[in-house]
Amino acid sequence: MMPQRVRLQLEAAAQHPTSIIGCQVRREPPNSTERYTRWINQLASDQLLTQKGTRGCGEELVSGSPGVAPSPRHPPWIRGPLAGSQREQVFTSNGPTVIMPTWFCSRAWFSHVGPFDEGGQGVPEDLLFFYNHLRKGGGVVRVDQSLLLYRYHPDAATHSVLETTIWTHRVRFLEERVLPHWAAFTIWNAGRQGRRLYRSLAAGTRRKVVAFCDVDENKIRKGFYCHEDSQERPKPRVPILHFRAARPPFVICVKLDLTGGAFENNLRSLHLQEGRDFLHFS
Predict the structure, then answer these.
(1) CA-to-CA distance for 16 and 60, rounded, in angstroms?
(2) Which InterPro entries does this UniProt record tie to the protein (predicted)?
């Protein structure tokens, strides 16, 4: 921990009393989990938090904090949430947008959200607490200084949590927080992860999926995905389209920072707005 950590995060917490305050980290060894570390440190302020509502332009007032006066000015190292906006990075497989070892908040807010789930090994207690924090209107703020040495080791407790457990919680949170507000949507990725998401959705939510989209000509040429495990008759067939022919909103099941910028360029070319037109579930 860097010597200025408590002071800087306390300053941020005083301005955002109902927020979890995180910070940037320095990884040890330096080249471990490079993509994840970039994601931790480089998320923009409008990607730290997810809330219902429309994208706003204010940066001062923490949404969901009635009676908390906006601070007149943020120090330049504090990156905070935009009021009334919908932030979608919390649905990715990376988990909380500020990692638990960096968390700082008041005892009063911690007690309001509730204790950690102490169910034992295999329980993603940080993810469950983070989701409850968001449900109660909490904000997410990051101090943009590297204040923690985040050491990687293969025996870390996080490796005891099954991916299937995390997946189930992520899907349920997505269905709770976003998908009820969409009349229809497209899953971006007709491959394994996109199909897995489709099969994991509740039956009523699956019926909102109007298409898959992709860049793979073989998948597009096939024309549709058939849900063979469905009990419905006839079995549901979902069209597979080129991404330029599909219509938003999109649930994106393509991992970032893995295609040499090709996917990111395709997404950028559509001039969509994150939170309104798409969210990441990769």
Answers:
(1) 9
(2) Nucleotide-diphossugar_trans (IPR029044)
Whether pTM > 0.70 for this model: the answer is yes
Specify the residue for token string 């870390």. Answer: 156
Query: Is there a single domain that holds both residue 65 and residue 183?
Result: no
Residues 221 and 273 placed together within one structural domain of the fold: yes
Q: Which residues contact 261 (CB under 8 A, 6 or more apart)?
A: none
How many of the other CB atoms lie within 10 Å of CB of 183? 8
- DSSP secondary structure, 93-160, as one string: TT-SSS-GGG-B--HHHHHHH-------TT--HHHHHHHHHHHTT-EEEEEEEEEEEEE--TT-GGGG
Are residues 147 and 246 both part of a single domain?
Answer: no
- Say whether both 147 and 14 belong to one domain: yes
Residue 182 and residue 101 in one domain: no
**Residue 31: its pLDDT value, please?**
83
Query: Cis omega before residue 17 (within 30°)?
Result: no
Beta-strand (E) ranges in the chain? Answer: 19-28, 78-79, 139-151, 185-188, 209-214, 224-226, 237-242, 250-252, 278-280
Domain extent at residue 210: 178-280
Number of domains in the chain: 2
Tens-place pLDDT, residues 101-130: 999 999 999 999 999 998 878 899 999 999
